[in-house]
What we know:
Blueprint lengths: L7 E5 L4 H19 L6 E5 L11 E3 L2 E3 L4 H12 L7 E2 L5 H9 L1
Helix pairs in contact: 1-2
Amino acid sequence: xxxxxxxxxxxxxxxxxxxxxxxxxxxxxxxxxxxxxxxxxxxxxxxxxxxxxxxxxxxxxxxxxxxxxxxxxxxxxxxxxxxxxxxxxxxxxxxxxxxxxxxxx
Length: 105
């Protein structure tokens, strides 16, 4: 059954993800959000999720999706909305404290 709730989306802008294509991912999500206002998406910037080797990282509803591109993140979001569960990591292992330590690096 397709999901109908709003999504909280966080795009990594850390030292690895930021220079790669984080801005383009953010732009693709903004365009998707503008084209689908009924989805009520919230979009934020995140400094780092701690999975730099798997850049670009984007979290949707506290699930981390790695190796994202502007095209792939839209496909991922559509799959989620269709009730599928694309491969992801749970963010529950990353605490605010561990994220603060990453920001100090």
